[in-house]
Design goal:
68% helix; 2 domains; single chain; globular; mainly alpha
Length: 260
């Protein structure tokens, strides 16, 4: 029963995530007006707005005008539900007390998912989401005591400074930005939740996965030489993986892979 409730609530948050991802880049309120069809403007009935189920019952079309509703809406709701369930398996939790881990993780993933989707759509990481994510991360860390808060505060500041410095250096050497300032702010968010060792491991995972995907894109021709692509999703992936298993676990896997 607990798993079902977590999944349902995660899917509902996924439904709201769809609203945020659509409206925030357009500088629209994410609260008002209520959910409506972007084609005909009719308000979506509550029973048509049920996560995943509503889309299936409507067969992917607006009840009023018949316009198609993207499959991405139920996909995001389903992914959100699965991520909320995965939060229950946390073994690290950024140094927070063990009972806090699952619930804090659900807040974290509710912040990361819209950032990932907006970056994929617009190559943009909204500062308000990054800023609020950093503040909430530090507030959670404060509940774990001063040593944890101090570590996470320093980690957030160092991640921001280092990535902004790398971005500036890359721009001078390459003549174009290799990292956006939004990436630095997302890394700072990660530092606020994970601490110094955690954000270091998360950035290592992000760099490795980003390099692999970028190289594959270049080889297959899906990415042109020097074409920019979203790095935020890889940072978010690194943050989430380290949140679930911890920095030490990931460094151990790296050492085993290298045969140390």
């Amino acid at each position: 029963m607990k798993l079902l409730m977590v999944a349902l609530f995660g899917a509902c948050i996924g439904s709201f995530t769809n609203v945020v991802v659509w409206r925030l880049p357009r500088q629209e309120s994410v609260v008002y007006p209520g959910s409506h069809c972007p084609h005909c403007g009719h308000a979506i009935r509550w029973h048509d707005n049920l996560p995943v189920l509503g889309w299936l019952l409507l067969r992917g079309r607006c009840r009023d005008c018949g316009s198609g509703i993207s499959w991405r809406y139920p996909a995001v709701e389903l992914v959100s539900a699965l991520l909320w369930l995965s939060a229950l398996s946390v073994q690290a939790g950024g140094g927070l007390p063990e009972p806090w881990g699952p619930w804090a993780g659900q807040v974290l993933v509710a912040l990361l998912l819209p950032l990932v989707l907006i970056d994929l759509d617009h190559l943009w990481l909204p500062e308000p989401l990054c800023r609020w994510g950093l503040v909430i991360g530090l507030l959670c860390s404060a509940g774990a005591g001063w040593p944890v808060l101090a570590d996470h505060l320093v980690a957030a500041a160092m991640a921001l400074v280092l990535l902004e410095g790398l971005s500036g250096m890359a721009e001078r050497l390459l003549g174009q930005s290799a990292l956006g300032l939004g990436d630095a702010k997302l890394a700072a968010l990660g530092g606020a939740w994970l601490g110094a060792a955690g954000i270091a491991a998360a950035m290592a995972l992000a760099t490795l996965s980003g390099a692999l995907v970028g190289s594959l894109g270049r080889v297959t021709g899906r990415l042109q030489p020097r074409q920019a692509f979203a790095f935020g999703p890889f940072i978010a992936l690194g943050i989430w993986l380290v949140w679930l298993r911890g920095a030490d676990w990931w460094w151990e896997q790296w050492q085993q892979l290298l045969g140390f």
